[in-house]
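Continuing the batch. This is chain 6 of the set; chains 1 through 5 are on the previous pages. Same settings as before, nothing changed between runs. Recording input and output for traceability.
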Amino acid sequence: MDFVSIRIITGDVARLVTFYEQVTGVRAVWATEDFAELTTPGATLAIASTRTVPLFAPGSARPAENHSVITEFLVDDVDRVHRNLSAYVTDFVAGPTTMPWGNRSLLFRDPDGNLVNFFTPVTPEAVEKFAR
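Output for chain 6:
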């Protein structure tokens, strides 16, 4: 089994896609006006309209109600990225902080309130874990 993507359901696909394109530097590929994907070497972030939910199961997902999932992106230098994000991010939850497991993390919210973590491994163990 391969983990390939995570999907965010939103009431405004264009707004969320634009935000993620800006903060990641990855261009989205649009399948329809209701569905786009930003693909990185490790996984894909899919963004879909509320209009797609009934295709799976009506009422099974609601936009802007996530309180348990953090979408994470590995970046080369989280401190530099933090300085560059101020033009796009309005809700920083925590500035760059070194975590006990060896990653330096930056936590912020996307326009729908979903938590996003950009991180850089900084300890030898963490660097080795994420060696490309």
